Amino acid sequence: MECKNPDNHETHICQLKIKQQFDKVRELSKKAQFYCGICEAESNSKESLCDPREFKGKAGVLRWR
């Protein structure tokens, strides 16, 4: 699978993990409403994921994808 937004790939969670910028990853992961269809990283911002998909259900409750 390929990144849906390659122009901003350097700011995606997968790249932040590689760069070991875990503080940014933690901030983006708080109250996540989206997940990546490729690596399943969770985020509160669509822009920080390669293939953003919205969680179904309420945040903090069992979320079915």
SSE topology sketch:
Layout: H1 13-18, H2 22-29, E1 34-36, E2 42-43, E3 52-54
Antiparallel strand pairs: 1-2, 1-3
Terminal Cα span: 18 Å
- How many structural units, i.e. domains? 1
Strand order of the largest sheet: 2-1-3
How big is the Rg?
Answer: 11 Å
Helix run count: 2
Entry keywords:
alpha+beta; 12% strand; single chain; 3 strands; 2 helices; 22% helix; three-stranded antiparallel sheet; 65 residues
Describe the protein.
The chain contains 2 helices and 3 strands, in the order H-H-E-E-E. Strands 2-1-3 form a 3-stranded antiparallel beta sheet. The two termini are 18 Å apart. It is globular. It is α+β, with helices and mostly antiparallel strands. A hairpin with a 5-residue loop joins strand 1 and strand 2. The chain has one domain.
